[in-house]
Amino acid sequence: MDHVDRILAQWSAERPDLDIAPMGLMGRLARLRMHLQREIEKALADFSLSASGFDVLATLRRSGAPYRLSPSDLAAMTMVTSGTMTNRLDQLEKSGLIERLHNPDDRRSVIIGLTPAGLELVDRAVTAHVANQHRLVEALTKDERSTLDTLLGKFLSVFEDPSTPPSKTDGS
């Protein structure tokens, strides 16, 4: 019995008229996210990085050489506001991991690029991050991971893919 089971038992006793099955799913997803985030932050701390700083560096790294993006592209890809991105960029620039460069296509704007130190750090950090992710999912078999990934992708598409309408289910 996990923590969510205890909550569900309490609600079932207090409100037996409610179908609380979705509460279990939502509660487990929320608690799992909290546990996973904590483990990810611990692993990234070995590189003096927060998850948010790593997210920016990793986004630049996976964009390919020359590892440069506009601040607005970075904000969109990391799903944060421009103000939040500015704060993240300020910290990473102070650490010497990114640099702000004049945009060659528009001198009024800047492009964010990885410095050599940023590239070296993110390459080491992403290697450790992937190893940590493998550790975090090792309680599931390969088939279970594949099934869970498919189901979560389907669930996520309801929110992120405008061509996927929310489905009506019969409760099964």
How would you describe this protein?
This protein has 172 residues and is mostly helical. The protein has a single domain (40-160), classed as Winged helix-like DNA-binding domain superfamily/Winged helix DNA-binding domain (Arc Repressor Mutant, subunit A, Orthogonal Bundle), CATH 1.10.10. 65% of the residues lie in helices and 10% in strands. The chain is built from 7 helices and 3 strands; from the N terminus they run H-H-H-E-H-H-E-E-H-H. A hairpin with a 2-residue loop joins strand 2 (98-103) and strand 3 (106-114). The longest helix has 25 residues, at 21-45. It is elongated and about 65 Å long.
Task: Explain the layout of strands and helices.
Layout: H1 3-14, H2 21-45, H3 51-62, E1 68-69, H4 71-78, H5 82-94, E2 98-103, E3 106-114, H6 116-137, H7 142-160
Antiparallel strand pairs: 1-3, 2-3
Helix pairs in contact: 1-2, 2-6, 3-6, 4-5
Q: Could you name the key traits of this structure?
A:
Arc Repressor Mutant, subunit A, mainly alpha, 7 helices, 3-stranded antiparallel sheet, 172 residues
Structural class: mainly alpha
Give the count of helical stretches.
7
Shape: elongated
Average per-residue pLDDT, rounded, comes to 93
**Strand order in space, largest sheet:** 1-3-2
Query: What is the end-to-end distance?
Result: 22 Å
CATH class: Mainly Alpha
Give a short account of the largest sheet. 3 strands, antiparallel
Uncertain ranges: none
Strands, count: 3
> How many structural domains does the protein architecture include?
1
Oligomer: single chain
The percent range for helix content is: 55-70%
What would you give as the CATH superfamily?
A: Winged helix-like DNA-binding domain superfamily/Winged helix DNA-binding domain
CATH topology: Arc Repressor Mutant, subunit A
Question: Whole-number radius of gyration?
Answer: 21 Å
CATH architecture tag: Orthogonal Bundle
Assess the beta-strand content as a share of residues.
5-15%
Query: From N to C, what is the helix and strand string?
Result: HHHEHHEEHH
